[in-house]
Design a protein that fits this description.
10 strands; four-stranded antiparallel β-sheet; alpha+beta; 8 helices; Tetrahydropterin Synthase, Chain A; 3 domains
Length: about 325
């Protein structure tokens, strides 16, 4: 394997010792050792060993920890990954299991606070390499991007995600929460550039008309990107979609014009059908015989009546068409 290639870590689930059993044993050892230290029958040479036993038992008590449902703890000993505890409850593990990953994460948060990023306080880690496995919601900010046709648009999305592989989340990326935020924004920008806002070609997927298809494409791209951090995506969907303010009015007028044209096309199509039906009925029932000139006049009058927007006022012709 090349030295430049990064190894991918995978989670190994392990079981920790029962915390209640260990706390009972350790407390019993401490009480017994303290009682023996005060006893006169114990030789003086044994008392230092009893003192060390008390100190060691007290140190081992620091290995107790609790996990709530949908929480996990990553066990790291001297830089080596030993496994992940996922079972909720009261547990005991080697007190030497470090929390270096947690300290590094909190150190980065403190640096952000130093840069006046006070909201970072809300993302304080759980401590001792604990990782939340609960579903989290990332409500993305509105981004200004160009769609497939180069039109500037505003778009935003919400992503529901959770940690799937704790080893990848801790060891394969620097900060998995920031990684999710950055990759979500990047994926949304890329997605917006692949589709037109609306008025695409026949059967073309557009951002405005095919929200479900676009959201599914966004989720698939996010799953591919976030798999490197051991994160799975439960849901991804668009929450905001609009033209940028500088072209919003022009696009609105265009949409209104297109709506008027579509309505006119449907109106003319209906009017032509009605005129054709009227002429056919008159001819079949032998109501009146019309030559080409009279038929043209009748078609003209009917089209004006059917397609006109203003109220129709009948005109009585006292003569004939030929006068």
């Amino acid at each position: 394997m090349s030295a430049n290639q990064k190894s991918v870590n995978h989670e190994r689930t392990v079981d920790a010792l029962n915390g209640w059993v260990m706390v009972t044993v350790l407390l019993a050892v401490i009480i017994a050792a303290i009682a023996a230290l005060g006893a006169e029958l114990v030789p003086n040479g044994v008392k230092p060993l009893l003192a060390v036993t008390v100190a060691l038992s007290a140190f081992l008590l620091s290995g107790l920890f609790t996990l709530q449902p949908n929480e996990a703890r990553v066990l790291v000993l001297f830089g080596n990954y030993h496994g992940t505890v996922r079972t909720a409850g009261f547990h005991w593990a080697n007190p030497l299991y470090s929390n270096g990953a947690e300290r590094g994460l909190w150190h980065r948060k403190l640096q952000k606070i130093g840069n006046h990023d006070l909201p970072a306080l809300a993302h304080r880690p759980l401590g001792r390499n604990k990782i939340s496995l609960r579903a989290r919601t990332l409500n993305g900010q509105r981004l200004k991007v160009n769609d497939r046709r180069g039109n500037p648009i505003e778009i935003a999305a919400v992503v529901v995600w959770k940690v799937q592989d704790t080893a990848q989340a801790v060891f394969d990326v620097d900060d998995y929460a920031d990684y999710v935020h950055t990759q979500s924004e990047s994926a949304l920008r890329h997605l917006a550039s692949q589709y037109s806002y609306d008025n695409g070609e026949e059967r073309e997927i557009t951002l405005r008309s095919n929200v479900e298809e676009v959201s599914q494409a966004l989720r698939m791209e996010l799953e591919e990107r976030l798999a490197k951090a051991g994160v799975s995506v439960d849901e991804a969907r668009l929450t905001h979609l609009a033209y940028a303010p500088e072209i919003a009015q022009a696009m609105l007028r265009r949409q209104q014009a297109e709506a008027v044209i579509a309505a006119r096309e449907k109106l003319v199509h209906g009017a032509v059908s009605m005129v054709s039906m009227a002429l056919t009925e008159l001819a079949e029932k032998d109501v009146v015989h019309l030559d080409d000139e009279r038929r043209a006049a009748m078609v003209s009058n009917l089209m004006v009546v059917l397609c006109g927007e203003s109220e129709v006022h009948p005109v009585v012709n006292a003569g004939t068409l030929y006068n």
